[in-house]
Design a protein that fits this description.
With 225 residues, the protein is an alpha+beta fold. Helices cover 36% and strands 21% of the residues. The strands form 3 sheets. Strands 2-1-8-9 form a 4-stranded antiparallel β-sheet, with helices on one face. It has a 3-stranded antiparallel β-sheet with strand order 4-5-6. Helix 1 packs antiparallel against helix 8.
Length: 225
């Protein structure tokens, strides 16, 4: 199967961050609508945000995977996980230079968030088809540490559990000159909305019909634990 499923967190539709980030990336993954992006001097904002917009505004909980079972079976497992997970407070978010990329990250550690991500990785793994050799090679395992390579072999992704870090991507990797322009613009566009207090109340299922096609938010599952 060429389609992929992912478990993400994304702000609720009524959250101002949903609108602000959708307009920053030029695309709303809830509806597929596109928006004109505010131009920035000396940079191509559409190119800088293209990949992040293609994936949709989100934080990864279980990364995209091909299904070994069916969407219905995976969806049921995700619904059961959401039903036993209690809503929790998310710390204020801030625009961060994350290894050269711009992203929103939490302002302080959130153990409930880490536990939620860990549960997502485990609970859906029976529905994940193993990655192909080509998919593994694209991740450049030779550049990973031993633990990351072990996670890649066992879970199909190197950045899970203690290697996981919460982030919502806002750009591709930037040069220092680009960052000087784009960082203040990102802070102006999404910083105020990101800093608001919020409760994580949903688990989001994102789908991608085939590689290269934009992800869409397929379903929001309420946390009810």
């Amino acid at each position: 199967m060429s389609a992929r499923l992912a478990l993400y967190w994304a702000p609720e539709v009524g959250d101002p961050l949903h609108t602000a980030a959708s307009r920053w990336l030029g695309r709303d993954t809830e509806t597929g609508a596109t928006y004109p992006q505010s131009p920035l001097p000396g940079v191509d904002i559409a190119e800088i945000t293209a990949e992040a917009g293609n994936y949709g505004f989100h934080a990864t909980l279980k990364p995209p995977f091909h299904l070994a079972t069916s969407y219905a079976a995976a969806r049921e497992a995700a619904a059961q996980l959401a039903a036993r997970t209690a809503p929790f407070a998310l710390p204020p978010l801030r625009v961060t230079d994350l290894r050269g990329f711009l992203a929103l990250t939490e302002s302080e550690p959130c153990p409930a968030l880490q536990a939620f991500a860990d549960d997502c990785v485990r609970a859906l793994d029976a529905h994940r088809a193993p990655p192909t050799e080509a998919e593994i090679a694209r991740r450049n395992p030779d550049r990973m540490n031993e633990r990351q390579r072990g996670f890649l072999a066992r879970w199909g992704y190197p950045y899970v559990f203690e290697e996981w870090f919460f982030h919502l991507t806002l750009s591709r990797r930037l040069t220092a000159e680009e960052k000087a322009i784009v960082l203040p613009a990102a802070e102006a566009a999404v910083g105020e909305a990101a800093a608001r207090p919020r409760i994580v109340r949903e688990l989001c299922l994102f789908t991608q019909p085939q590689r290269g096609v934009p992800f869409l938010l397929a379903e929001r599952l309420p946390l009810a634990g």
